[in-house]
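Record format v2
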Amino acid sequence: MSLKAKIDDVFNEPGCDKNQGKDAKARKKGCSKPLTPGAAAGGCAFDGAKIVLQPITDVAHLIHAPLACEGNSWDNRGAASSGSSLWRTSFTTDLTELDIVMGQGERKLFRAIREISENYAPPAIFVYSTCVTALIGDDIEAVCRRAAEKFGLPVVPVNAPGFVGSKNLGNKLAGEALLDHVIGTEEPDDVTPYDVNILGEFNLSGEFWMVKPLLEKLGMRIRACIPGDARYHDVATAHRAKATMMVCSTALINLARKMEERFGIPYFEGSFYGISDTSEALRELARLLVQQGAPPELLERTESLIEEEEATAWAALEGFRPRLEGKRVLLNTGGVKSWSVVHALQEIGIEIVGTSVKKSTPEDKERIKQILKDENHMFDSMAPRDLYAMLAEHKADIMLSGGRTQFIALKAKMPWLDINQERHHPYAGYNGMVELVRQIDIAIHNPVWETVRQACPWDKDGRLLEAEPVRSFATHGATVAAPVHAFRKFASTTADDMGEC
Amino acid sequence: MARVQHQTKQVAINPLKSSQPLGAAFAYLGVDGAMPLFHGSQGCTSFALVLFVRHFKETIPLQTTAMDEVATILGGADHLEEAILNLKNRTKPSLIGICTTALVETRGEDFAGDVARIKARRAEELAGTEVVLSNTPDFDGAIEEGWAKAVTSMIDGVTIPGERARDPKRVAILPGWHLTVADIEHIRETVESFGLTPVILPDVSGALDGTVPDRWIPTTYGGTKVGDIRDLGTCFQAIAIGEHMRGPAEALQARTGVPYALFQQLSGMKAIDRFITMLAMISGNPVPARVRRRRAQLQDALLDGHFHFGGKRIAVAAEPDHLYQLSTFFTGLGAEITAAVTTTGTSRILSKVQSEVVQVGDLADLEAMAQAAEVDLIVTHSHGRQAAERLGVPLMRVGFPIFDRLGSQHRLTVLYEGARDLIFEAANIFQANQHQPTPEGLNPFRNRETDNDSCPTSFTRH
């Protein structure tokens, strides 16, 4: 299928509520909004594809591009691996002007694949096309096919050059690459009725490891977690799972839906963020497994585990109430990804004073209206200037957001907590929710906020503002020897005298 | 006299380079009220932006012309114009610095013509904003080249041409990209201590030094004033730091007649002495007591530090001028550069690097060379951490990007004080990683046994 047809296909996603809400004409236009030159933000389709696939840990990821696409972006994600670290090794063809002018891109790519397969012997190589190599017409699919034959390992083309669209489109094109070239290419010999797939879980800061033991305690087996801490062979055999959970909104919805179509694996959308969502996810996984033929007693075991874990988590959260009750949180993410996080925060007395609804559906917006006391606090996306103003005026006690707006909060001297992909703390599962609240507590109560907000004793020209400093020296029992003009200044507080100093 | 060895691998593994447009944007970030603009797809900007933010821990103004598929095929002039006007309206910058990327350069358009037409057609709307262009495709060069091109583009595009009345107290400083915020601040203070007025282009110390302004500013805040770039011709003398700043210095000389002196590095005693002597000559003032004191401190640091450097084997990977600076620093204290890797092979400074071979390559080359040479220290940016971990060799982080340590912009690396601090930093790493003596390690027969193992001479072993 051509790239154009592929893009049309992923834009027409029957599994996506938002897409189904559109009429035929709007659907045909696709989901990509045209960008405004000089006022655009966010990554490209290549970025999105790489984000989805790169955490597959034992694969060599080869970027066919001039330097910037990989050179400026490698080793920058916080996904964790329990095995191979090959995914953190960066491979790029680093095309030079000569390569491009002489049309040597394909040859260089082929040789690069050979060098990697000889020196690293990975179970597979993923090859990513980019703007320049798409523009000069390098046929990466043909090169990959030939290389796979020649070197005897799977070589997977990922056709998502940056200029075709946004990061989200790239996520979906990556899912297509897995469907076309990886999933179902190997048969496992160890299938159980308890095999599940988790899609769209990135294992950031290792947070999936906070959830995995819960699943394992219930006897569930992770066939494949894509992409977090995945191995190539896990992904290749993912078609033999009995149920799929799709995490992280709609990034991989096409993958989930098509796996249902092709392999009869039912899926649901769930989240491991927040207490009730985690419980709901466990419940739904158990239900689907039983529906697929697992013994029904799984449901009971699931309920008793949920009851136990929820009680422990709520007890832990309750301990934070005295410190956090009445604190105001500003949520500035693409859209609230988990209602149960909001719910848990509110449960211990935290107030939500604003949230962005950029990526929210109409139903989501309705729910937000009910949660926020004032619907004016719902915003589509805020210009940095406005966000800064809101924070600088102390209309919140902390902002939770992604790295993009980190420094807006910090420059406004406002506590900030990373809840996006670069974060350093794991927030998944029951323990993760407690960790999130603990981090909010730590951030808000850091003494540094008082220190940085302390008014500077002098003005922008370095002139002392008032007699206060001298008085404070005096109260501390110190004597200050100041020259005559300073005494004159502090003897009087009129503006004229201040001006003379 | 180093021999430059070019890359023979087809695949770059763990790149050492950051891209050329990133280098150009970096230079524009050193201008007050500036807004760098990448002419390419949104990802080009996003990647560079994230890397800058990870390094500086600051908001970085950087925008994109957001080239999409259609614009890539039909031509990007409209996108360029729209971006410039949008930036002008929204952020009111004093300067828009355009950096082209591989995407638009592969397509190949007359960017200079486009920019000239946009400036002419929109002269009224763009009043008060300089628009300059640097051609910086990613498939060529690295930070050094991009930085130098951007500085040249500002001189060519903004500085008033022709001979002007020159102020004997004004000195233009053209620093290379590898000088930190602290370096720039220190150079400024040193020049000022001679009663001279430095005009520094680019001046990253104003914008990227990590301060907290009292309002939201969408462009850079601080750095070289556009007015000062215009009046560079009134400087008495220009001082360029780093071989890659020769181009910009020559451009300034050609445009205004201001002569330049080039310092290839400012971390070695001899070069620093020459720099200070030059300031004394220009100003006609004696060397201030503070500077003299610093020189004595460096002498003492050399004496105290040399024990830790003598005989050490060092692997360095850095852009050409930075590599040269670091190699002279380490060899000047008795260490040996046993692995040297650089980003691009065209700089003439490479032949002066204090090592036998300079490999144009990546961090995988560095890792292999460091392993073969059994080095005691790896010196490169943060991406060297994986190699250092694997080899069990300490890493000294230098250059860009440094994303896993704080305060890299406030490390001093030039003049007496910077050289002194560098000595302490490296010596402390050596001391923290000293190997404890063991009976096995000191056994006089240990090497002979290994020899026997590798080529058995006695059949009784089989």
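Chain A touches chain B through 66 residues (CB under 8 Å).
The longest strand of chain A covers residues 195-201.
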